[in-house]
Amino acid sequence: SLDNILAVGGAAHGHLGLLIFGLMLSIPIILFGSELVARLLGRFPAVLYIGVFVLVHSAVAMFFHDAIIASRIHTTTIIEVILSLVLTGVIVGITQLQARQRAGRVSGDAPAGA
Questions:
Q1: Assessment of whether the complete model's pTM goes beyond 0.70
Q2: Each residue of 39-50: pLDDT tens digit?
């Protein structure tokens, strides 16, 4: 995927040998890893919520550690974690609500507010 290529390219820091090695190593990991993740999610759907939290927390940390933001807003790790948990809850709640609404439309129920 494009994000994998960009990540490997960034990690290589312009070194062509490292770039080629990284791509040759990462492609099989992505292929086999994606199958493992699909099986894991099929068996333990709650793992998806952990993944959502990891992505949200990464975004929150990147936001607060940006030079412009960090010079204006001072935060602690605990605040970042709490904000990440709240945002994860909002995201999961919205997706659950949307899934219920879609399921209602598929079964023939009228959408809420109609």
A1: no
A2: 999 999 889 999
